[in-house]
Write a structure and sequence with these properties.
The chain is an alpha+beta fold. It is built from 17 helices and 16 strands. It has helices at residues 8-29, 67-74, 83-95, 104-116, 128-138, 158-163, 171-176, 235-239, 260-273, 279-298, 300-311, 315-325, 330-340, 385-392, 399-408, 410-423, 439-446; strands at residues 35-41, 44-53, 56-64, 124-126, 151-155, 183-186, 194-198, 204-210, 220-222, 227-232, 243-247, 253-257, 359-362, 367-374, 377-384, 431-434. The strands form four sheets. Strands 4, 5, 6, 7, 8, 9 and 10 form a seven-stranded mixed sheet that branches. Strand 2 and strand 3 (56-64) form a beta hairpin. The radius of gyration is 27 Å and the shape is elongated.
């Protein structure tokens, strides 16, 4: 993990770039003369930007009231970001930190969507383009093989799309300003509408929305974005409480992406819903694995909160999370379970076996150690000397005597090791230690 960590100075550079691009995007979106005005909707305040036009007054959605938004409104037109300075920050992050960015075509498409107001109107950039932004956000380097894509995916809650009471230009017009070859791909379930747009070079832009009712393929309208969208199960979890990020193109592009902890857990779920062995499933699990490895160190409490939310959503969610964890590196799996305070038993089919009968006395740890195997990975199992002395009458014996007493009771030790490994909270990845105070509880559980 340490080898992939970005130096703190460059992480600070990204934080500065994020603030500068956020301010620049705000200034650009509301550059003309006008006033900011609040509305109270269902007990919460939302802000709009009001301008005079020939036909009367026009309002554009700004956002839900937060301290950050109020501060940005106060500083409106007082902030003048230096474009060249932001370009320098982007160049530093790309060259010195070797952070990923989209190819020029993808970058131009996302930029056009941002300029049109997609993210201002609470659209969320999802998929691999969003994954690229987590490198700078979390301060890690991502393997290039897992950040390449020729698709742009944007999601929005359909009810939010109605509630913002604002609208961008027709989406096809926005995309054709980048590439005139963009065309609608009519929906297979309803040929009157499109949720996908494709250019002649194969680049696709897909619009998605959560499906929280009965399963359906019927496209749903997103009036704020001027398009229909494909409803998808589990998407509401992904795009709830999204975060700001910067796409490292030009002078930095301000976008909105899923929280990385939600992205990682969502990838575990969707990876299991794909056909086993496919390239997309493999990419899902690898992206989840990389993010989880970073999140257990950098955002353990946020990861646990997201895990708890997903786990409480029902048996299907728990099944898919467990099966997804079973597809990633065992050490990262164990770290994730430890952060989530969850047992390994949620992973379907996982068992601790003991194909080898070898045991040895570890003088440094003062334990008897024996090796098990779970999910194709070795598991170091140990019993403390105190546990041997207190419950198995091995006091005063030398090394060989302790090993002999262990061998006499080996089946019982293996049963206790299996019980603790599978059903107790994870203490250390890939290993367990049976302590003297734990034996009464383990024996009681085994006797049930």
């Amino acid at each position: 993990m340490a080898a992939n960590t970005i130096p703190l100075t460059l992480q600070t550079t990204y934080a500065e770039l994020l603030e500068r691009t956020a301010s620049a995007a705000f200034e650009e979106a509301f550059s003309e003369e006008g006033t900011f005005t609040p509305k109270k909707i269902r007990g919460r305040r939302y802000w709009y930007f009001q301008v005079k036009t020939e036909s009367g007054r026009q309002q554009r959605y700004v956002g839900a009231e937060t301290p950050e938004l109020l501060d940005r409104i106060r500083r409106h037109k007082k902030t003048r970001d230096n474009l060249r300075e932001r370009q320098t920050l982007v160049s530093t992050l790309v060259r010195s930190a070797r952070l990923p960015r989209p190819n020029d075509n993808i970058g131009a498409i996302v930029e056009a969507l941002a300029r049109a107001g997609v993210f201002r109107l609470r659209g969320v950039l999802v998929g691999t383009v969003a994954y690229q932004t987590y490198s700078a956000m979390l301060g890690i380097r991502l393997a290039s093989a897992h950040v390449q894509t020729e698709d742009v995916d944007v999601a929005q809650f359909s009810e939010v799309s109605v509630a913002v009471e604002d609208q961008i230009p027709p989406i096809l017009d926005v995309l054709r300003k980048v590439d005139e070859s963009f065309r609608e791909v009519l929906h297979t379930h309803d040929a009157r509408h499109a949720a996908t747009y494709e250019a002649s070079d194969g680049i696709r832009v897909d619009f998605l929305t959560p499906n929280r009712g009965e399963d359906t393929d019927e496209p749903r309208q997103l009036p704020a974005l001027g398009t229909h969208a494909q409803p998808l199960r589990f998407l509401d979890f992904l795009i709830r409480d999204p975060e700001p990020a910067v796409l490292l193109i030009k002078a930095g592009l301000y976008v909105v992406v899923p929280a990385p902890q939600r992205f990682a857990l969502h990838k575990l779920i969707v990876g299991r819903r794909r056909r086993v062995g496919t390239a997309k499933a493999g990419k899902d699990f690898k992206q989840a694995e990389v993010l989880l490895d970073a999140l257990v160190e950098k955002r353990p409490s946020e990861l646990r909160d997201a895990w708890d939310e997903a786990f409480k959503r029902g048996p299907k969610w728990r099944q898919l999370l467990g099966e997804g964890l079973g597809q990633i590196d065992s050490e990262i799996r164990d770290k994730t379970l430890r952060a989530a305070d969850a047992p390994r038993s949620i992973i379907s089919g996982l068992d601790l076996r003991f194909p080898s009968r070898v045991a040895r006395y570890d003088f440094e740890r003062d334990t008897v150690t024996f090796i098990g195997e779970a999910g194709g990975a070795p598991v170091r199992c140990s019993v403390s000397r105190e546990a041997l002395d207190d419950y198995f009458g091995i006091r005063q014996l030398h090394k060989e005597g302790r090993l002999e007493k262990f061998r006499e009771n080996r089946d019982k030790f293996e049963d206790m090791a299996r019980q603790k490994y599978l059903h107790w909270p994870v203490e250390e990845p890939g290993s367990i230690l049976i302590k003297t105070r734990e034996i009464p509880k383990l024996l009681k559980e085994l006797d049930r």
